Amino acid sequence: MSKRFYFFVILIFGLIFLYSGCNNSPTGSDDIQDGDDVVDVSHFSIENYPRVDGSTSTHPLQILIACKILGIPYEWGEWYDGTRRIQPLPSDPPKADILGYVEEIYHNGTHGSYVNLITDSADVILVAREPSDDEISLADSLGITIETKAIALDAFVFILNVNNQINSLTVEQIQGIYTGNITNWQEVGGVNAAINPYQRNKNSGSQELMDALVMKDLPMIDAPEMILLTMMGPINKLNDDPYGIGYTVYFFREYMAPRENIKLCWINGVKPDPISISTGSYIYTTKVYVAIRSHLETQSTAFTLWKWLKTQSGQNVVGESRQKSFELTFGIEKHLQKNHKLSPYIGGQLGVSYEEINNKIIPNKALSYSRFDDGYKNESERKLLSMTIQIIFGVEYYLKENISLSGQYSFGSYFGVGEEKTVTNIVDGIQDISKTRFGIGSSSLILSIYL
Do 309 and 415 share a structural domain? Predict the structure, then answer.
């Protein structure tokens, strides 16, 4: 019998551009930004502003861009459909015409915005995916070519009710649920209850991502009664259904439609969060795109906006965040016996992590915000100290003397203590984000090489 101790430290200090500027949805991959080209948008007005459209989840970004370029302040607030979105504010001196214009900017959803772009009812769209086969066919039939560029990162995520004891699923388990091969939560380690696999309608952004990233060539279960027609559909269902599962995008779930009764499902043991998304360790990291028709006049404001969003200035408007994190993990394994190839073991693991994120929407310095005596403010600060305690069971199989493959299951608890402070000209408050979770389980496959 033998014991193995291990010690693991992760340090991350960096600048991560954020999806909306005042939230923790990460963007800013190396292939997002074109460079330091100067693109002038100072001549934009409500008379020549491009006709815009997009996905539901990109509407806050669209409003943020318009407010920045047209010169009015903004804040996060409740919207009529129960989501939270960026909204323009009255300015001083008054700009009622601009305020009214920005308030009228509406997104028709991913498929609707692509159709509007193709049929010349919109010039620039911000969308959560590239065009679907149906949309490409429509464009081809009209002799239109769509051009897309990535401007941000997001993620495709699965959501569960907090009362569901399952916290993590594998890709294969997700596929099994949505092909109908897995129908009871007991089959994936949960309670003895039928699974309600909520879906989205064809050509919606979420459904196209589901087909492309998760199901691929696998057929979705035929369950018309489970198909939901809006992005709020899965949120509303999962808020009350402890036996359901649904899918959406990270930014929408975390910042536009946060619900205490809904949690994110880990995939293959990886939690979708700003770090795992920005590093790509979360398997379903996705991109947000700006799309135009390829034949747009290069002198048009639509083409100018398209170019500007990829410059340093455009990316700065998308958002800015300074993030620091530290993770420390201690563990011990005790091998119970070892024959020539196989060695079962038990162990324990203690992890401690600290995360600090400071976000700030930075207004255009050339604009006046004189109605705020102490200057325009929209900032948030998040600090979280967490600890995980896990018991580990596993079997290590030696492929060679110094190479082994281990399958292990860990079970434990999570304790987090922290707060999030928000400071704007309208709201100044502190939210407790401390959480305690028991019974968190995950499985993993580990390849080890001993030097």
Answer: no
